[in-house]
Amino acid sequence: MNKVILYYLLIFVAIFFSCNPAPSQQKFSNHLINESSPYLKQHAHNPVNWYPWGEEALKRAKEENKPILVSIGYSSCHWCHVMEHESFEDTAVARVMNENFISIKIDREERPDIDQVYMDAIHAMGQQGGWPLNVFLTPDKEPFYGGTYFPKEQWTDLLTQVSNAYKLQPNKIKNSATALKEHIAKSELERYDLGKENNQFPLKKLEKAYKELSKGFDYKNGGFNKSPKFPMPKLYEFLLQYSHITNDKAALDHTLFTLDKIKNGGIYDQIGGGFSRYSVDEKWFAPHFEKMLYDNGQLLSLYANAYRISKNNAYKKVISETIQFLKREMLHKNGGFYAALDADSEEKEGKFYVWTYQELQKYIPEDQFPLFTAYYNIEKKGNWEHGNNILYKKVNDNTFVKTHSLESKDFEKLTIQWKKILLKNREKRIRPGLDNKIISGWNGLALKGICDAYSATNEKEFLELALTNATFIKEKMILKDDQLLRTYDTTKKINGYLEDYAAVIDGFISLYQITFDEKWLTTAIGLTEYAYSHFYDEKENMFFYTDNSSEKLIAKKKELFDNVIPSSNSMMATNLFILGHILGDEKYIERSDQMLAIMNDLMMKNIQFSSYWASLYISHIKPTVEIAIVGKQSLNYAQEIASNYYPNKVILGTKNHSDLALLKERSAINGKTTLYVCRNKTCNLPVFEIDKAWKEIIE
Fold first, then answer.
1. Do 247 and 624 touch, CB atoms closer than 8 A?
2. Where would you tag: which of 48, 258, 383, 386 has the fewest CB atoms within 10 A of its CB?
3. In terms of domains, do 584 and 666 share one?
């Protein structure tokens, strides 16, 4: 690492102390017009001579010995739009780019593999990552300098200086790029010293890690003591599971308190449902208004589990409103979900979602307006920027109703009426841009969330939506050999990444457990076997992020750390663990255990970035409960069991017969639906009542 930083400093000096050479007059044209990505299409009419990533651009860079500028973003990224308007639409800036660089635009949601490699390079330079990501490469695709957003004047200066350094000091550039490439090409297991396997999973070790994590809790606003604040669904899922295994009420209380703050804040769309990507402040008040499918899918699971635990109808309402948002604004006619909604409309962040006092006064009945403004904290001068109001709540509905001496049912009818009025009028506005890519992995996260929503609430509408979405994925995104596509696109084939396989497998496993239709389980197994054959590294016992037939980049990465989306390896390890118990397949469980053992010591140093691994760790503290149900009422019995919170379990069932190991020798005794509760390959005596089975589950 020291060598990398040294070379980086040398190249930094070279860039900023170079002289200006005479510019080239060569011109070409923008090559993005035929791309399918909404993000690339947004740039198709820039005066910049953009190329998509591919052989044509890379070959041209070598032929002309020009540095490559790779600019990575995504369609709902606010600062990506800002930099486009300031710089990429400016003809003077474009001239500098066109004369000195081969410029490549990349949609990070289509090519997260490329984004991973060059984001790693930025971090190795000691810089904070983010989007837009702008990285300068040699014609051999090796990075030597980069950053994120640059204002127009700074960007123009940087372009000139980088070009000069490349022409006048090529050896320094080459040395820097070589050192950086060597660093980012290192195996993640080697980089983080993960050579040892620790297959011991004591509770005390977890308690110590939780205690360290809890030091960062924000007891005033919920979440953690920092801003901006991201929901981080899997981190709060871990806290729910930790509370369950330890009976630690403080962990549960803080999680539910945080979920209340999130659902009451501006980060949650109080009118239309659904969550924005993050809050820019510590109070969950002012969102960065983009809405991502992956957030909303995972938050459905989180609020479903909170509802299972608390039976708080406010969580059920959030679940329902979020699903209605997904159906209304994110659903393709054939059943797939779109990727994202932009933060901006009419080139202004949040314009679609905010209201002036006068607008609201016009729409809400006069006699209800004082109550409305109190409920949503509306101010005449605006509670946000430029005289606008973000609708948010300071207290839960029960508290508000008591404070204002209202009847709960009457007030609920009022809030429904207000939302209908404002939603109807909001629909007349110019909508934010829609990223209409359908990404398989994000659909897997949404499928999982909708399955959890159904099992927690028993709302049949949710089950129908899950089946529609799963059918779309199965029929449109999985090829005959169990190969999964990244995106649904009839013109462009992008192979699925490990993240896609892992999330879709999880979704199909969840769907099997609420339908007992074994075709979903069979599909999950096929995808798992494909992933093992094409992604697994036998040497290090982890999965690569890319298929072994994918394009060879300058580094082949393994994704280990959980973030807003859990790491693809932690998802795969969890899938293998659950499938192993459903199928009675020790091979799957052993692979999962080995992966967890590799991460064991590292995860405990910082659970914030390994929370899904930590949830899998919890599953090893007590044996997994395997529930087999046979008989005509098997689905109804399963639904009732699943509506209560017990995370470390699998549920299998059949009306008559199944060849699954746990069901094969079992029957409905005397024609009565029969429940078998098992642990460690040992089953209790069969029972016929759900309450008796539940006592055995929680014993």
1. no
2. 386
3. no
